[in-house]
Amino acid sequence: MTPISLSPVGADVAADSGPLRARPRWRTGAALAASAWLAACSQLPTYQRPEVALPSAWPVQASATPAADGTAATEPLAWQDFVRELTLKALIEQALVNNRDLRVAALQIEQARAQYQIRQADRWPTVNAGVTGSRQTAGEDEPIKSTYTAGLLVSGWEADLFGRIASLKEAALAQFLASEETRKALQTSLVGSVASTWLSLQANEAQLELTRQTLASREEGLRLIRLRHEHGAASALDLRAAESLAATARATLAQQQRLRQLDVNALALLVGQPLDQALQPAARPEAVATTEAQAVRALAEVPVGLPSQVLLQRPDVRAAEQQLVAANAQIGAARAAFFPRISLTASMGSASSELSGLFKSGTWGWTLAPQALLPIFDAGRNQAGLASAQAGQQVALAQYEKAIQTAFREVNDALAGQATLADQLQAQQQLAQAEAQRLRLSELRLKQGVASQLELLDAQRSVFAAQQTLLQTRLALAQNRVALFKALGGGWR
Predict the structure, then answer these.
(1) Which of 206, 217, 375, 464 is the least crowded, having the fewest Cβ atoms under 10 Å away?
(2) Going from the N-terminus, what domains does the chain have, and what CATH number goes with each?
């Protein structure tokens, strides 16, 4: 084995003392050759992004919002531009500050950053200051020998000739970058969850007001039918039908009150603190009429680009790719374990048999102990480590491909909703208008004595059901816009 020699610090400076002059060409060439040799010895596989077959267009036609220059918008829409409602913006800003899941993700980034710094520090020797003392006997008649040392120690520094430490550093860096992308994905998901829950709370408020109005109308109708039944002008069947409608409205009112409170609780959990009373929607008679307008004003339309842009925009896809990079680097570290591991232990300081003479003249010295270990027999440990790293790389590749497939599925689902929910809403509006007109005609027919009370009660039941479905469809259309924003990865500014 070729011995490793270390020249004292400052030897080159002493040799080149005097006017500053250029380093000889042979030294530069030797440094370049050494760098090339070290690079060639690295066992880190070259990473290449896996090829994924991407369609040139979405299966469902997307409505793209044109940019200022007339071309289709390609950049993801920032959430500050997507959310227009000031109340909703305030809730999202509170959630971004107080949400505990997001706080955990931020702390995990700091943890991954520290792990990367640890791996980066492994490339350099650790210098310690040490003081030791020992006393031992050589025999019964021999005096006790004392040894005291003090100085600087470098223990077990590994010369990374085959890239094991460099591979681990690259893996730690990829893990850190993946944690950054995971936090961005969680932020986008949090914005979408707050917006979706807020829209649900608005819809439940409108449903609650609609149910209150319906219940008041049905209780008044029940009172009138009871009076008519007492005077023989209405049958028992009419009375029981009116009682059934009133009981249904009361049950629906209790259900809507419960759903509203559940939305408030969910929104408080997302925001990370109790909701300010000013940020909660208040019940008002015009709530039913303004729900659709509020949903339209609250959220902007989301521009949709080419399918390949999902790879660049979705943080979860980028996080999955960084996990693949980390798994690829782990293969390099596992390969390097088959090659010799060269380490160096060195010390420089003072040694004396007496504590009082520890730092006197003539007690100073140094030691240098290089070591090279080549695995001969390890019962298959290194081979199993390489197989595990290769399997982990295949797992990361499958997860990366699944992340892409999931991204396309979510975008396609949102686009399918965008294409059909608008038509469904228009048809539901026509149905609600038709049922309202039918109710008015039934009331006129009853007053003229050409219709029965049951016909009027059936019309009232149909109007209430149509209005409820209309509110649910409006909510689905607004939440679909949120789903499209989340599926495209969102944006920040």
Answers:
(1) 375
(2) 41-123+162-339+391-487 (1.20.1600.10), 126-159+340-373 (2.20.200.10)
Torsion of CA 266, 272, 273, 279, to 10 degrees: -60
User: What would the pLDDT profile of 408-460 be if each residue is shown by its tens digit?
Assistant: 889 999 999 888 998 999 999 999 999 999 989 988 988 887 777 888 888 88
pTM over 0.90: no
Q: Is the dihedral of CA 324, 328, 331, 333 positive or negative?
A: negative
**Three-class DSSP category at 230:** helix
What pLDDT is stored for residue 311 in this prediction?
74
At 99, which helix (H) or strand (E)?
none
Q: Are strands 341-352 and 364-373 parallel, antiparallel or unpaired?
A: antiparallel
Structure-block tokens of residue 405: 């497939």
- Give rounded-to-5 percent helix, strand, coil for the chain: 65, 10, 25
Q: How far apart are the C-alpha atoms of 58 and 302, rounded to whole Å?
A: 15
Weakly modelled stretches of the chain, pLDDT under 70 = 1-41, 61-74, 140-141, 278-296, 493
In 53-163, where does DSSP find H-type helix?
79-82, 86-98, 100-121
Residues 6+ apart with CB under 8 A from 490: 76, 77, 78, 79, 82, 187, 188, 191, 192
